[in-house]
Amino acid sequence: MAQGNARLTLTLPGKVLALPLVGSLWRYRGWAVAAGLCGGVLALRFVYTMSRGGPPGPDPGDWLALGHDLFGERVRAARAVFPPLVPALAKGFALLLGPLPGLALLGALALVAAAPAVFFMAYHSGGLLWAGVATLGALFLPYHNEAMAWGGYPQLLAEALVLASLVLLGRGLQTGHQRLFLVSAGAGVLGIATSVWGVAFLALSVPLLLATALLVGLLRPATLRLLGAWWLPPVVVGGVLLTPIYWGYFSHFAEVPLNPSRLAPPDAFRFVFREWPWGSGSIFFVLPFSAGLAVYCLWLAPRPNLLGLTVPPLILTALAFYFPTGEPRFLSLLELGIWLGICAVLVEAWAAAQRLAPKGQVGVRWGLLGVALALTAFVVARGNQRAVASDEWYRVVTPEVHQALEWLRRHGIPGSVVVASGNLRGFQYFWWIEGYARLPAFSATDPKWMALKDEVWQNAVARQVLASPSPQEVASLAQEHHIRYLFLDKRVVKETEVFRQAGFVPAFENATILVLQWGGFTAPGPAPPPVPPGA
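The structure assignment produced for this chain is given below.
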């Protein structure tokens, strides 16, 4: 057993099996550590999410509604086309576990999805110790959770898949192994199939990685041939196959949904980096600091150092997309790049300690280990604190809301339109109504959050219904748009007499939600799907 090549022999009928023991399995200790970290955080996040009643935010309901549409069940009021990966996963997990547990598991997977790529690059740069430090910190970065991503699962998964593509491509350039190029291309295609974030990140970060590789002498004729033969063709074919989906995706938008909160750059940097110990997220500190890390990592890249090769493209991609758009979500990639850049500095300092005398080497390494543990503990604590706070702030599905959604799912007449108010913080219920209850819904929340053409006019109808002082107008709108239910947060919509006079009657009520049903329809069958004027 102490031997590195120890094996266990099993004699079966007609066959002798020699199973590896300690030595062979020891080679996979790194991935066992990575699996333990990812599995532990995934389990904790899933259990916590379910203990709060379900996933935070309004978006998970939309991914489930898009999943229903993807497989032929039309439940959304607004016409939309979306890249298929996340809707397919949402639908599949919901079928396996139920809507709320399935979406909670998908959210937890999105949260940990980038960790394997982080572990891989840190392991090949500094060994198992630094791979564990980098991965644990990346799992708890303060701005990296489902609620803070706003767009939610597609952005996190796309970021993780493009990061995997970038890291594997960098490793392929270092080693010349064609399999790495092929797997990198597969991850890139999945990133494109996940979200427009994947398209954007891949389109810029890969050229930046190749430029970095050219600067440090890794882009040689042999690696260029591997790139052209094993990486480029799958990505081009995947991109061409997904082009019709993205054509349909953009055709349904009234405007590109970037930075609807209209945060100015200083405010956006404070919002994203406020948990970090540098000037409360001041843009005047974060920008020079991140630029310094990028330059330092570029200096490290020829070592070869996979962290040094990957960090500059991450930081430059984030900044190149953020400043033209003002979209804070691009800064999540900057946060990840900064953390990995810090890890690269620690890895290099650890390696430099080997050149010291034995006594000094031990002291320096203990000091570096203490710094690494302190930084990681800080990131874990602050990241967990922000995850809990953002989960509570963006929560839409509470136990009371779940009860109302369940009533609609069981008793709602298929095809009937639901007009929904927002909650106290203005977040939407209507995507959850579509995904969970499978009924088309109009939202009466702030129109700035409505990006699709259909959602814009449906939002105007919903706001008109809930704001109208005339029972006759409410009844007319209900008849015209096949509105059979009103899903009202009683803390937001406090007066309901006009709806009762229009013919709506209470159908469900608890401490938070009142569902009114209109009895003005004479036809018992489902209403046709809503169609915008002029369509």
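Interim note for the steering committee: The beta strands are 7-12, 15-20, 417-420, 441-443, 483-489, 504-509, 513-518. The two ends are 74 Å apart (CA to CA).
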